[in-house]
Amino acid sequence: MLKYALLRLLGAIPTLLLVIVLAFLMVHAAPGGPFDDERVLSAEIEANIAAAYHLDEPLHRQFYRYFAGLLQGDLGPSYRYRDHTVSELIGTAFPISLKLGTMAMLLAVVFGVAAGSFAALRRNTLPDRSVMAFAMTGISIPVFVIAPVLVLLLAVKLQWLPAGWSGNEGAARFLLPVIALALPQVAYIARLTRASMIDVLASDFVRTARAQGLGTTAIVRYHALKPAMLPVLSYMGPAIAAILTGSVVVEEIFGIPGLGQFFVRAALNRDYTLVLGIVIFYATLVILLNLVVDILYGAIDPRIRQR
Amino acid sequence: MTTLFNIWRRMRENRAVMVSGGILIGIVIVAIVGPLISPHDYLQTNFDNLLQRPGTAGFHLFGTDDLGRDLFVRSMLGVQITIVVAVVASVVSLVIGVMYGAVAGYVGGRVDAIMMRFVDTLYALPFIFFVILLMVAFERNFLLIFVAIGAINWLDMARIVRGQTLSLREREFVDAARLTGVSTAAIIMRHIAPNLLGVVIVYVTLTIPQAILVESFLSFLGLGIQEPQTSLGALVDAGVNQMEGASWMLLIPAGLLATILLCFNFFGDAMRDVFDSRSER
User: Fold this and answer.
1) Measured between beta carbons, which residues in chain A are less than 8 angstroms from residue B113?
2) Do A275 and B133 touch (CB under 8 A)?
3) CATH 1.10.10.10 correct for B2-279
4) Which helix (H) or strand (E) holds B199?
């Protein structure tokens, strides 16, 4: 098991390097400088700025400098938020996004698995069809459509929940963003769970359990749920990526000062170093979480480790 | 020809295909014809008539936006651009995916292993962030959006095509071509690629909604299609800012986008059934 985990860890390193090199090159291939503004600067000042940010060095030297900093957790200075480093900015904004994302993920797994199992147990009945129609809708409609429509309905028209982030306190302000973020994932996980639960319920060991006189609840709880959850577990990687992407939109709509909002602002302001830093941070996060999922999967299902 | 006819017959028998396909064709026709008939164009502002409710007054069927522009024409323009971007991006991903998958599957061995390992590596990346990076680094033009979205979506296609090619290359007609001295490139282009048609059609119909998602996501964030051009994502974004006073500005483009995505997903799912049951026979 340890060997499997180590092999996976080694496998992730080239991916990480690829990400860093690719992102770095993309930003540095950009036409125009990071300080292009309406105000025209004199040549001397431009040269001084370039020297201060080491932009006058050859590309490979810049990369070494950046990479050396990266290894120490230093992503360089932000080009727009003066006096702040990229690492500082990520450090302040990320905890909020993390909270949001974790809650959405938990909600998605709990409701998705519950709805999927429910549908599988009532296969081809009206409840099953309704759950599946809901799931198809949830998968098709993007977060940036669901979120504003929810706000319009629940916050503006009915006034049940607060619409914005600022000026509100406590758990209520998390409710709408988390629901909007989780909904597509609930739908996807419900579909996955339903399909695999139907498979598992048709397997021999379930028939044996039934022959021994176990009730449906006990069969699902003690025998069927665990194997039926395996596809859900392997979907966790893409789900994490989808929730990160979704949180960019949700934070923008609800005005939540998380990393996603910083990212969009940085992209619109052309804050090259901040965008580069956040992309590398996000990519690293996704790769590491995928690694965790992989290792967990190997721990649960020994067949995977054999490969 | 008979195969194409069979596919068409099966499509006609499948209710989901006909309903979702019919709705999509209807939307596209209205999106093309509507702006031609309407007395308004997408640019013309009218500051005496801001945020008019949807209705027949002044022939503003979907009302007007916060600059007094006709929302019907703008929505239809949005539909046009959204669908064009999605179709072109899907063709890009189709070309890359089919070539890559066919080469990996046909050549096989170590080349295949390395090529597929590369695909696995790319799978783990949150691509959308790289697209945003690309949009920041370069001027936002149409072409770049097409290419960037196409470049994300080819991975699935490559995997599926590779799997099909693996089985195709063992078939007799490929052996025959090889024996008569046809080059590898020509075999892939002339003998393998045409036989991938069925799978490819199904996956293209499933790639289009994904491309629509990416494009509207970027436009929603202000990183995609730029004013005065518009797309459904950009219209939803504009609607979010006006939703308290003018909910139609949000609900109309949001509804259109949701309908188009739902129809494409249903259509793709049902097309998979059409091709599946063909192979069972």
Assistant:
1) none
2) yes
3) no
4) helix B197-220
Locate B247 and state its tokens.
């909910």
Q: What is the mean pLDDT of residues B183-199?
A: 83
Of B130, B209, B250, Cβ closest to residue A140: B209
- Please state, rounded to an integer, the average pLDDT across all residues of chain B: 82
Decide if pLDDT at B7 tops 80: no
Q: Which of A141, A145, A279 sits opposite B133 (nearest CB)?
A: A279
Whether chain A has a CB inside 8 Å of the CB on B245: the answer is: no
Look at B126 and A286 and tell me if their CB atoms are within 8 Å: yes
Residue of B20 and B45 predicted with greater confidence: B20
Task: Find the residue in B nearest to A275 (Cα).
Answer: B133
Out of A20-29, A71-80, A124-133, pick the least confident. A71-80
Q: What is the DSSP letter of B224?
A: S
**Which of A10, A36, A140 to probe the B interface (max B CBs under 10 A)?**
A140
Which residues fall within 8 angstroms of residue B26, CB to CB, at 6 or more apart?
none
Owner of token pair 């005005």? A255
**Chain A residues with beta carbon closer than 8 angstroms to that of B261:** 140-142
User: Chain centroid to CA A90: how far?
Assistant: 15
Predicted pLDDT at A115: 93
pLDDT, tens only, A140-179: 888 888 888 888 888 777 777 776 666 666 667 788 889 9
Helices (H) and strands (E) in chain B, counts: 11, 0
Q: For position A38, what pLDDT does the model report?
A: 59
Instruction: Tell me how far apart the alpha carbons of residues A156 and B243 are, in angstroms, rounded to a whole number.
Output: 9
Q: How many CB atoms lie within 10 A of CB B5?
A: 9
Give the pTM: 0.82
B227 in reach of chain A (CB within 8 A) = no
CB contact under 8 A, B133 and A149: no
DSSP string, B83-132: HHHHHHHHHHHHHHHHHHHHHHHHH-HHHHHHHHHHHHHHHTS-HHHHHH
**Mean pLDDT, residues B63-89 taken together:** 85
For the record, the structure tokens of A130 come out as: 């309704």
Q: Where are the domains of chain B?
A: 2-279
